[in-house]
């Protein structure tokens, strides 16, 4: 298994600082990557099966990716129109092509080509030191430590992120990525980098995550397009214009998201008793309880039970979770059990004040208003909840961990004319 040998290398070296001096002897002098560069250009991804028996078409995809994004992780090419800060200049430490690199800058990571020490600056270098061992060379969420985690690190390539402030299903705003990287995702293995990185370094690595994500989305789009051709017609597939237009549509989605934050139009309602109780009634009258459960313990009817879930996640080799799920969950079960990346999933226990996407009222507003992408939780704005109703639920959610009787003492059937009845009526 590939990850074993990679892990062996890493454990043999200093764990995080893979480029530390004691390790470099094991590799070619000046070779700064410990995982071979071609890993970046493999046609992996959810649709890889489409090109399984089509080597010429696979080669076409590879060639197009090389042309657009550069031949290896150290030589980054930023295609025209990619929405990154300073045209992509934060990705690497050294820009080739003079002061004005034009619309297609080629960014060279090593400070002076041919010199040995590790690159110190730029999103690529920061990613490589801090993120790669979990998120992987191409951002596929397949770094050497990834298989041991639950949930596993995000695969950036489908361009889908859970904790966003943009309309449901859209790419994140860069502020969303900055928040995740700065404060981490509570209750998961995703660390907070505030103590480790300067704000400027965080901006650099935000750009690199965006780069990997747009790159991955383009790759998947190219694979899908190539798969519509027969192997014998490979010569006609993926002409320059098609490749550019597929990449452009990815850039367009990201660009749009940068001006499409869903901010509340109404300021937060004060967390008064009345507001908290209205929020509670809305929680009980809406779909929240189907997933989170009547006592919000994360045990609603929609999801598989805790015992089955534990068997899938912890009942053996982590790489066989999907197989265990197949065995344990009957085919006709309508129960939800996994997120879009294939991780087994349960709704949050809202009696615990731990929120992956942040504990500020605005973070919870975004979670409830527009849901959690890829993780089954739907958006609720503008229907069934307008801003005022959403703030009432935020106030309820924030109060619940400190006041469990809010739900244990809640009336089973809400009297007509209350918030519950209103919500049912919609
Ligand atoms: C120890 C492993 C680990 C390291 C190191 C790590 N991550 Fe993560 N990261 C995770 C896990 C696990 C998740 C997914 C959590 C989930 O799905 O709930 C994640 C998720 C993310 C997400 C997705 C957030 C969303 O809204 O979906 C981003 C962005 C991210 N990480 C960026 C980074 C960056 C940038 C670095 C380095 C500066 C980094 N991570 C380092 C484990 C790690
Ligand atoms: C279809 C199922 C579903 C519905 C409906 C649903 N949720 Fe969720 N919710 C989830 C799942 C699953 C998670 C955990 C996602 C994860 O851990 O990645 C979650 C997580 C959360 C979180 C934690 C967010 C964080 O940052 O960790 C909150 C708060 C929350 N839900 C509140 C609500 C409220 C309030 C409602 C009703 C307005 C609601 N949910 C409706 C499935 C659902």
Characterise this structure.
This protein has 426 residues and is mainly alpha-helical. It folds into three domains: 39-257, no CATH class; 273-302 and 347-425, Cytochrome c-like domain (Cytochrome Bc1 Complex, Chain D, domain 2, Orthogonal Bundle); 305-339, no CATH class. It has helices at residues 2-12, 21-24, 55-69, 123-130, 132-135, 174-183, 199-226, 240-257, 273-285, 288-292, 306-314, 321-328, 361-370, 387-399, 405-408, 419-425; strands spanning 75-77, 94-96, 106-108. The chain has a three-stranded antiparallel sheet with strand order 1-3-2. Helix 7 (199-226) crosses helix 8. The chain is globular, with a radius of gyration of 24 Å. The model is unreliable at 1-39, 41-47, 115-119 and 420-426 (pLDDT under 50).
Give a count of the beta strands, DSSP E runs of length 2 or more. 3
Record the strand order, biggest sheet.
1-3-2
How far the N terminus sits from the C terminus, by CA atoms, comes to 54 Å
Q: What would you call the structural class?
A: mainly alpha
Cα gyration radius (Å) = 24 Å
What small molecules does the structure contain? heme C
Helix content, binned percent: 25-40%
- Annotation field: number of helices: 16
pLDDT < 50 stretches:
1-39, 41-47, 115-119, 420-426
- How much of the sequence lies in strands comes to under 5%
Number of domains: 3
The average pLDDT is 83
* Sheet having the most strands: 3 strands, antiparallel
Characterize the overall form: globular
Topology order in helix (H) and strand (E) letters: HHHEEEHHHHHHHHHHHHH
